[in-house]
Amino acid sequence: MSVIALLGAGKIGEALLSGLLHGGTSADDLLFTERYPARAAELTEKYGVHGVTVPEAAKRADVLIVAVKPQDIDPVLDELAPLLGPDSLVVSLCAGLPTALYERRLASGVPVVRVMPNTPMLVGEAMSAMSPGKHATAAHLTVVRELLEHVGKVVEVPESQQDAVTALSGSGPAYFFFLVEAMIDAGILLGLPRALSESLIVQSAVGAGKMLAESGEHPVILREAVTSPAGTTINAIRELEKHGVRAALLAAIEAARDRSVELGKAHETP
Question: Domain named Pyrroline-5-carboxylate reductase dimerisation: which ranges (predicted)?
Fold first, then answer.
């Protein structure tokens, strides 16, 4: 079994750690790095996995999963550079950062796979998109797929699509949470208690998501099934269209894509 090191133990790092353990990976085959000692001690007590330094992780692990914030990547790469070779596999979960950055900063031949997951990883329902760098083989992609399937679904996309994926599914849960928050407030506006409004909308969201996943129907068909002639729903849809909700979502997702591109460009060589 390969030794896997998670570089960065924030929410996504911890979620993947938990998923791997629940999927049968031994705690002895897992390591993590964490800058705050109290947090490292908490994770070790909770999961039985040892916290290590970045250099120790590089020396001991076969697969290194980089889950730090994009703005924190430079010192991590500085520590990894003299220690990694073609026998290592680097998996980047950092939004906006291209495989070319790792390939430029690490030793020649180090395989890199770029992944954009999302926060439903915390409940085992992530959507992760992976893209190989120029040194990553089909065997490397198989390793990454098997790791990520412990916490959700996985697709392979060309790296040229990763900024769009970041904007759509990487940030996507936030858009749903934003809409649910607004709908709960609407229930309160209409006179419902907050707890009841929240219960109604959250279960509606869970049910709608399950219908989308399991029915095989296009969202338009599912929406039309709720939209009776001259009924309540069509009046609501008219107001959404009148206020440009569809156009606002398109613009918002474009803005997220543009920010992902900016994060990558910030690490380009002059």
Answer: 159-263
Please check whether residue 243 lies inside any domain of the structure: yes
What domain range is 43 assigned to?
4-161
- pLDDT (tens, 9 = 90+) of the chain, 270 residues, equals 589 999 999 989 999 999 999 888 999 999 999 999 999 999 999 999 999 999 999 999 999 999 999 999 999 999 999 999 999 999 999 999 999 999 999 999 999 999 999 999 989 999 999 999 999 999 999 999 999 999 999 999 999 999 999 999 999 999 999 999 999 999 999 999 999 999 999 999 999 999 999 999 999 999 999 999 999 999 999 999 999 999 999 999 999 999 999 998 887 765
State whether 121 and 9 are in the same domain: yes
CA distance 134 to 253: 28
Q: DSSP assignment, residue 157?
A: -
Task: Determine whether the annotation assigns residue 82 to a binding site.
Answer: no
**Residue 166, class by beta-carbon neighbours within 10 Å (0-12 exposed, 13-18 middle, 19+ buried)?**
buried
70 is in an annotated binding site: yes
Q: What is the CATH number of the domain that holds 77?
A: 3.40.50.720
Q: Is 153 annotated for ligand binding?
A: no
Task: Give the Cα separation of 63 and 101 in Å (integer).
Answer: 18
In the listed set 129, 161, 193, which residue is the last one of a domain according to the structure? Answer: 161
